[in-house]
Write a sequence for this structure.
C-alpha cells in the first residue's frame, strides 16, 4: 500500500499524523496500523515534539473503522491465521495509544466508528466536534465491539454503554463527552485555531489549558434520555432489554423506536456477546479488555455471522443478513461463554 495513506509532519511543537484515505473515510488498513505505530515511535523520541495530534483527511471524519472488506475472505473461510495479524497489531496499537508518554490529541470530527474509536478514545486528549458521529456498530455486522471500546462502554454512565453497544447508534460530540469517550467539545470551525494554539506549546502540560480554552460544552441527548435508557438497558438479558425498549417505544419515544429497530435487525449472537463483554469489562483494565477482544473477535471469525454481516452490509449491500442462529432464544449461555475462552491455534494477546 502507498505510504501516502499516513502523512506525518512536525508543526511547531506538535507531531501531526493524518490518516489519508478520505474516499474511504480513512478506514484503517493493516499497512496503516504499522505506519501509525512507526510514527508514534518517531515522535516519542523527538524531543522537539511536545504532543502528538491525530486527524483524518477530508471532511467526512477521523476514521470509519477497520477495512473490514479485507477480512471478509478470512471470515468466509474461517481462516484465523490470515485474520489474526491485523487484529493483533491493531489491538497492540490501541494499547500503545492508551499508554503513550506524550499528550495524544485526537480530533474526532465526523465519523468515528469502530477502529476509529480505537485510535482516539484511548488517547489522553479527545476532541469531539459538532460533526462527530461516534459509534461502535459491530453488532450490525455480526460480532461485538472491539479495539478496547468495551472498556469505555463499561465505564460509561449507568447503562449508556450498553445502549451504544447493542444499538450500534452514532452519537454526537456532546454525547461522546457524556459517555466518557471524549474530553472536550470544540465547534468544527474552531478546530484549526485550536491546532494552531497547540503548535505553540512549550510544555506538554499546556495541552490541558489549550483544550479547556476552546471547550464549548453542549447539550447531550444521551443525558436527556438517560432515565429510559437506564431503565431499559439496565436489565440483565438482551431479551429483557428489548422488552424494556419496546415498552418505551410504545409510549411514542422516537429514540426508543429507532433503538428497537436496531436491536431487532442485529445479530442475536453479536448482541449477547456484546452484553457479556461489557459485563466482564467492568472488572478489567484496558489491556485486559484488549486480550478479551482478541478472543471474541477470533471466535467471530470462526463463526458464521461476521462473514454474513460484512456481506449483507458492505459487499452485496442488500441489508438482509441471514444470522445463524436467527433468534435470541437459540443463542445459549454456553455458546456465549465460549466466545471468551482461549482460541485454538491463536495465542492470547500479550501486552505490557
Amino acid at each position: 500500500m502507498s505510504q501516502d495513506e499516513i502523512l506525518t509532519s512536525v508543526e511547531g511543537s506538535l507531531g501531526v499524523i493524518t490518516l489519508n484515505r478520505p474516499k474511504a473515510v480513512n478506514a484503517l488498513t493493516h499497512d496503516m496500523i504499522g505506519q501509525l505505530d512507526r510514527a508514534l515511535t518517531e515522535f516519542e523520541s523527538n524531543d522537539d515534539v511536545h504532543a502528538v495530534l491525530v486527524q483524518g483527511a477530508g471532511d467526512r471524519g477521523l476514521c470509519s473503522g477497520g477495512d473490514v472488506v479485507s477480512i471478509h475472505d478470512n471470515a468466509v473461510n474461517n481462516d484465523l491465521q490470515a485474520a489474526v495479524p491485523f487484529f493483533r497489531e491493531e489491538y497492540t496499537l490501541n494499547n500503545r495509544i492508551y499508554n503513550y508518554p506524550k499528550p495524544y490529541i485526537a480530533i474526532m470530527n465526523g465519523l468515528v466508528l469502530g477502529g476509529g474509536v480505537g485510535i482516539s478514545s484511548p488517547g489522553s486528549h479527545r476532541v469531539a466536534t459538532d460533526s462527530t458521529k461516534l459509534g461502535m456498530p459491530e453488532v450490525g455486522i455480526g460480532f461485538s465491539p472491539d479495539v478496547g471500546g468495551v472498556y469505555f462502554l463499561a465505564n460509561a454512565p449507568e447503562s449508556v454503554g450498553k445502549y451504544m453497544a447493542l444499538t450500534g447508534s452514532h452519537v454526537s460530540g456532546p454525547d461522546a463527552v457524556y459517555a466518557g469517550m471524549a474530553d472536550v467539545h470544540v465547534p468544527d470551525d474552531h478546530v484549526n485555531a485550536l491546532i494552531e494554539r497547540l503548535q505553540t506549546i512549550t510544555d506538554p502540560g499546556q495541552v490541558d489549558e489549550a483544550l479547556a480554552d476552546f471547550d464549548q460544552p453542549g447539550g447531550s441527548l444521551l443525558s436527556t434520555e438517560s432515565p429510559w435508557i437506564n431503565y431499559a438497558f439496565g436489565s440483565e438479558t438482551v431479551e429483557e432489554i428489548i422488552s424494556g425498549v419496546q415498552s418505551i417505544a410504545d409510549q411514542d419515544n422516537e429514540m426508543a423506536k429507532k433503538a428497537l429497530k436496531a436491536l431487532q435487525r442485529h445479530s442475536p449472537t453479536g448482541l449477547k456477546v456484546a452484553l457479556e463483554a461489557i459485563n466482564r469489562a467492568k472488572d478489567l483494565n484496558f489491556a485486559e479488555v484488549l486480550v478479551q477482544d482478541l478472543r471474541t473477535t477470533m471466535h467471530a471469525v470462526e463463526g458464521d455471522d461476521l462473514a454474513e454481516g460484512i456481506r449483507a452490509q458492505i459487499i452485496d449491500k442488500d441489508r438482509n443478513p441471514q444470522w445463524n442462529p436467527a433468534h435470541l432464544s437459540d443463542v445459549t449461555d454456553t455458546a456465549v461463554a465460549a466466545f471468551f475462552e482461549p482460541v485454538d491455534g491463536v495465542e492470547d494477546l500479550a501486552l505490557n
Summary: Residues 3-338 form a domain with the 2-enoyl-CoA Hydratase; Chain A, domain 1 fold (CATH 3.90.226.10). The mean pLDDT is 96. The longest strand covers residues 6-11.
